[in-house]
Design a protein that fits this description.
single chain, about 230 residues, alpha+beta, three-stranded antiparallel sheet, about 10% helix, globular, disordered N terminus
């Protein structure tokens, strides 16, 4: 993968429960192991370690139909998640690089404001604590390995995951405010509804093909990322 941007600062890895630290990012840069673009402060974290690997157990819930599309649901611990990214054609949402085939495979990309309202009734964009519950249940620091799908993650590095609990995470990439798209097949970015009050950014969960871990960043709400809905 050819990176078309420069990294101007390093984001510090932190625990999900530890104090957040600040770093400075170039307004157009985005990097899945460090600085995330469009923010003047970025917090990222690798989640706490788990002492044991989760057992392979996938429990599917009922399939739901939303705006003419079917979504399998999956029970993970005490949570119920959609088993794929949302593909609801809300105003302002886009397919990666305006390619309809990418919407079919990865779902649509949404700005934060849109992402907050696109999940069906009874479902919502997860808050940070809901992401944390999922991550800790499936392996802590190695959660990406267990949440990523068994195929679809391009490149060398770590690549595909084990999909132990049916979350089936795929690398849908991102869209930048200036219309630039990047990272499809290499990284997945998912919005959280949790915001950073001092800079009005929102948290994003990130998985990449280069590692097994899951990272957390805060970044501009004007970027376009994937949505995964959790049942309430």
């Amino acid at each position: 993968m050819v990176l078309k941007f420069f990294i101007f600062a390093v984001a510090f890895l932190i625990s999900c429960t530890s104090e957040e630290r600040d770093s400075v990012c170039d307004e157009k840069s985005i990097y899945y192991n460090g600085c995330v673009g469009g923010v003047s402060s970025s917090s990222s974290s690798t989640v706490p370690s788990s002492s044991s690997e989760p057992a392979q157990s996938i429990t599917y819930g009922p399939t739901i139909t939303y705006e003419d599309e079917d979504y399998e649901t999956v029970v993970i611990g005490n949570q119920v998640w959609m088993a794929k990214n949302l593909n609801y054609n809300a105003p302002g949402s886009v397919c990666y690089n305006k390619n309809q085939a990418d919407c079919t495979k990865y779902g649509r990309l949404y700005k934060w404001e849109t992402a907050m309202s696109v999940c069906p009734y009874g479902w919502s964009l997860p808050i940070n604590s809901e992401w944390n519950t999922l991550i800790n249940y499936v392996g802590g620091a190695s959660a990406g390995r267990y949440l990523k799908s068994k195929s679809g993650w391009g490149g060398g590095f770590v690549g595909n995951g084990l999909n132990l609990v049916g979350f089936s995470a795929l690398p849908g990439g991102y869209g930048a405010p200036d219309g630039y798209f990047s990272d499809v097949d290499f990284s997945g970015y998912w919005w959280s509804s949790s915001v950073i009050e001092y800079n009005n950014n929102a948290y994003v969960l990130v998985m990449s093909n280069s590692e097994d871990s899951v990272s957390r960043y805060n970044m501009s709400k004007d970027y376009l990322f994937s949505v995964r809905c959790v049942k309430h």
